[in-house]
Design goal:
294 residues; alpha+beta; three-stranded antiparallel beta sheet; 13 strands
Length: 294
């Protein structure tokens, strides 16, 4: 039996290299779904109709697309789909920079940059205002021959992006295998509890009690801190785990639905289609089509 796998790309970055910049003019996307250890900023211009897949996110892009990916296991691909453009412009930057707390980027001037890099573990898509702000710098990047000045320019691009509002994450946390993090210890305690019990029925009263609050007060508190109500958060988490299982396992749709906390198959199918725009079986089939059979 063949098994579909994501290509683990070995990028051209070598040894003490920091940046690899590739600028291309082309008519189609042909590279299959892949991941890589280093970080990536990918800009695509004049390619409406291309399908961008990042983890369990699948979207058709318009004329401009800019995505930052910092998750080493997060698979991604830009597929030709229905794009008929004859002049696709793509700029891909692979970079290997230590953004940890122990590096210089853990210091105060780089706080927004470090926050953005953490969020980009799930893939981060930037709005048009942000793209236009860095567009001139991006287009000049490949022409800078001096390594120091190229790095300086790229760091400025990242910093400007970190200051722009409206960026949104693509893959779900559970699919991207990103650890739960929160500024509030109570929210973190609740998220850890949900993550450990997502297969079971989770009652608002029990979670509120865990946080030491009444159900109504907890509902307001949780939405304030996460931007979602409790039921939406639980559904997103379950769907992330389900999507990962659809891609990585041969379990039946029913087994996956029940195993991820959905109480019946029709409910799982209905919610999955509403949130992902396709059925679980279509999601599995589409993902396997983008992968290489080895």
């Amino acid at each position: 039996m063949t098994e579909s796998k994501v290509i683990h790309e070995i990028t051209p970055l070598m040894g003490k290299d920091v940046l690899y910049i590739a600028e291309r003019r082309k008519k189609e996307f042909t590279y299959p779904i892949h991941n890589h250890k280093v970080f990536e900023l990918n800009f695509v211009e004049h390619a409406p109709g291309v399908r961008r897949i990042v983890g369990d996110s699948s979207e058709v892009i318009s004329d401009y697309d800019l995505v930052l990916i910092t998750g080493p296991d997060l698979e991604h691909v830009w597929e030709q789909n229905i794009c008929s453009s004859e002049d696709i412009h793509e700029i891909t930057v692979h970079f290997d920079i230590d953004f940890s707390d122990s590096s210089i980027f853990g210091r105060n001037p780089f706080r927004s940059l470090q926050k953005m890099m953490n969020e980009a573990q799930k893939g981060l898509c930037f709005p048009m205002d942000a793209i236009m702000k860095v567009y001139p710098m991006l287009c000049k990047l490949s022409s800078i021959k001096d390594g120091f000045y190229a790095f300086q320019q790229f760091l400025s691009i990242l910093y400007e992006l970190s200051l722009c509002p409206g960026a949104r994450t693509l893959a779900t946390s559970s699919y991207a295998k990103v650890e739960v993090a929160s500024d509030s210890r109570r929210v973190l305690k609740v998220k850890n509890y949900i993550n450990a019990h997502y297969r079971d029925e989770i009652r608002l009263a029990d979670v509120a009690s865990l946080a030491g609050m009444s159900p109504s007060a907890f509902s307001r508190f949780f939405k304030l801190h996460t931007g979602r109500n409790l039921s939406d958060y639980i559904i997103e988490l379950r769907l992330g785990y389900a999507s990962r299982m659809l891609v990585d396992s041969t379990h039946s749709i029913a087994e996956i639905g029940y195993g991820c906390g959905f109480n019946n198959l029709s409910n799982f199918n209905r919610i999955f289609r509403k949130k992902k725009g396709c059925s679980p079986s279509e999601f599995r089939e589409n993902y396997h089509k983008t992968r290489i059979i080895v």
